[in-house]
From TrEMBL:
<keyword id="KW-0472">Membrane</keyword>
<dbReference type="GO" id="GO:0015020">
    <property type="term" value="F:glucuronosyltransferase activity"/>
</dbReference>
<keyword id="KW-0812">Transmembrane</keyword>
<keyword id="KW-0328">Glycosyltransferase</keyword>
<protein>
    <recommendedName>
        <fullName>glucuronosyltransferase</fullName>
        <ecNumber>2.4.1.17</ecNumber>
    </recommendedName>
</protein>
<dbReference type="Pfam" id="PF00201">
    <property type="entry name" value="UDPGT"/>
</dbReference>
<keyword id="KW-0808">Transferase</keyword>
<comment type="similarity">
    <text>Belongs to the UDP-glycosyltransferase family.</text>
</comment>
<keyword id="KW-1133">Transmembrane helix</keyword>
<dbReference type="InterPro" id="IPR050271">
    <property type="entry name" value="UDP-glycosyltransferase"/>
</dbReference>
<feature type="transmembrane region" description="Helical">
    <location>
        <begin position="495"/>
        <end position="518"/>
    </location>
</feature>
<keyword id="KW-0732">Signal</keyword>
<dbReference type="InterPro" id="IPR002213">
    <property type="entry name" value="UDP_glucos_trans"/>
</dbReference>
<feature type="signal peptide">
    <location>
        <begin position="1"/>
        <end position="20"/>
    </location>
</feature>
Length: 532
């Protein structure tokens, strides 16, 4: 009997192994949230039976500074590039609302990433090491073009594109996703929801164009340099990118703005949430017992250091929190923000620290509200645990994300500039969220929808990867040809032009006939007068 079960086990193991990929997950260290998300991707693949390696490439944060993976293999690639993007331009004026500033921020970013990519491609030892592993597939984020080039150069057949935030304009264009600028807000630095007036739609189109243009400029620059390494016949980056068979987007269809998507673009928001560590250790287990009416969490994420905000900004926040005596507040600040740490010292209902176990706190039944910057991972975590939100969108996709929570009624957004001039609006919205039960009710509905939908993000992710494996690693049947069409064809401008031309011809002919008729009638009238 034991022998029989052993044979069955070995057979199942063989079948599983025969349908398992060897996968490289490319993870640039641009922010801790991106590193965490890519780690969740790698761990999910590893737990799904794939031989997975997370390669953490040193862009901004030192590789290994975040424990990104528990189950996948880990490969850090550090370097000492003189232009390493520490303290990028977007932190110089964090409270700026200019859409053009973000455009130049991305220009700076791509100047650096292009240089790093070329260093990597010219490093024979690194390239040989990747090649020797004989990866079947490579997973990579939407804003980094280097893994696209590596996949082509090393003949990694299966390419899977990912987006750790709502999709940017270049990925939308390349993958043939409809540009619905009238009701789909652009991802970056956009304070609008899906209902926009005339001027907001103009701004939305400008944002889409700027984000598309900065990516086009970046891959065109990289194209010319890559051909110096691999020859003039090396394909264009955009043409390689089009061959990705699947796109996994870290958004949730329950939470996000609805939009039309091709069948190879899949929502996988909440990926890895099933294995997130939720147990609280000291002092947080004790802190969650404080506050007669519960606990509120405040965090602006890892991208925005609170020390770069004007001192009065955090003072306005802390003064307001101190007024709500029935609640206990856990506030995350950066470790160098000595001003906020000292100012909060002695406030009985406020605890300040530079690190918090966010998922564990959000999962705790005594948490009443999460005051957040609006990063997508934070929103998905809050939705999972039925937590209402007060969102202060700072940069990138955060202002847009704040609107999608408001849209479904489980939170409110606050203009980041309002806390420069006082805290009246902040206090009013905090009061509304803590006293009006509709936000909790709506948050519970969002959580229920996320948990009872036909497939979770994790289930969809693994099933589509398996689907890809079982069909030779290619799914051209799912690809939209929209990106292959010219602008004229895509928007049917030739048909519109032909229709307008026909109308012009028709009106011209009718006009000529009318003139002819009028002229004939006038001649007849004059002839009749002469006869009389």
């Amino acid at each position: 009997m034991i022998s029989h079960y052993l044979k069955c086990f070995l057979l199942l193991s063989f079948v599983s192994a025969s349908y398992s990929y060897k996968i490289l997950v490319w993870s640039p260290t641009v922010s801790k949230s991106h590193m965490i998300q890519n780690g969740r991707v790698a761990d999910t693949l590893a737990l799904g039976g794939h031989n997975t390696t997370l390669i953490e490439v040193d862009y901004s944060i030192e590789p290994g500074s975040v424990k990104a993976v528990r189950h996948a293999n880990y490969w850090p690639v550090s370097h000492h590039h003189p232009d390493r993007i520490r303290g990028p331009r977007y932190l110089e004026d964090i409270l700026s609302d200019s859409i053009y500033k973000e455009y130049y921020v991305f220009h700076d970013f791509f100047d650096f990433t292009d240089d790093f990519c070329l260093d990597f491609l010219r490093n024979k030892e690194l390239m040989d090491k990747v090649k020797a592993e004989k990866y079947d597939a490579i997973f990579y984020e939407q804003y980094d073009f280097c893994p696209i080039v590596i996949a082509q150069a090393l003949n990694i057949k299966v390419k899977v594109w990912m987006s750790s935030c709502p999709q940017l304009a270049h990925q939308v264009a390349i993958m043939g996703i409809p540009f619905e600028a009238s009701y789909v807000p652009a991802a970056m630095n956009n304070p609008n929801g899906d209902r926009m007036n005339f001027f907001e739609r103009i701004g939305n189109i400008i944002r889409l164009y700027l984000m598309y243009d900065v990516h086009v400029s970046a891959w065109n620059r990289l194209d010319s340099e890559v051909r110096k390494i691999f020859g003039d016949n090396f394909p264009r980056i955009v043409d390689i990118a089009k061959t990705a068979d699947l796109v996994f987007v870290n958004t949730d269809e329950i939470i996000d703005f609805p939009r039309p998507l091709p069948p190879n673009v899949i929502h996988v928001g909440g990926l890895g949430m099933s294995s997130v560590h939720k147990d609280l250790e000291a002092p947080f287990d004790d802190l969650m017992t404080k506050g007669p009416k519960g606990v509120v969490l405040f965090s602006l994420g890892s991208v925005v250091p609170t020390k770069l905000l004007p001192p009065q900004y955090m003072k306005n926040v802390l003064d307001t929190l101190a007024k709500f005596k029935d609640y206990f507040f856990i506030v995350k600040v950066c470790k160098d923000d000595l001003s906020s740490i000292e100012y909060a010292n002695g406030t009985e209902n406020v605890y300040v620290n530079d690190w918090i176990p966010q998922a564990g706190i959000l999962a705790h039944p005594r948490l009443q509200l999460f005051i957040t910057h609006g990063g997508y991972n934070s929103i998905v975590e809050a939705g999972t645990f039925s937590i209402p939100l007060l969102l202060i969108g700072m940069i990138f996709d955060q202002p847009r994300n704040a609107r999608l929570v408001e849209r479904n009624g489980w939170g409110l957004s606050l203009d980041k500039l309002s806390l420069l001039h006082g805290a009246e609006e902040f206090e009013a919205k905090l009061t509304e969220l803590l006293t009006n039960k509709k936000y909790k009710t709506n948050a519970q509905r969002v959580s229920r929808l996320m948990k009872t939908k036909p497939q979770t993000g994790e289930q969809k992710f693994l099933s589509y990867v398996r689907f890809l494996e079982e069909n030779d690693g290619h799914l051209p049947e799912l690809r939209s040809i929209a990106s292959d069409l010219s602008t004229i064809e895509y928007h049917n401008l030739d048909i519109l032009a032909a229709f307008l031309a026909l109308l012009a011809i028709l009106f011209t002919v009718l006009g000529c006939l009318l003139l002819k008729i009028v002229k004939t009638l006038r001649l007849l009238f004059h002839a009749k007068e002469k006869i009389q």
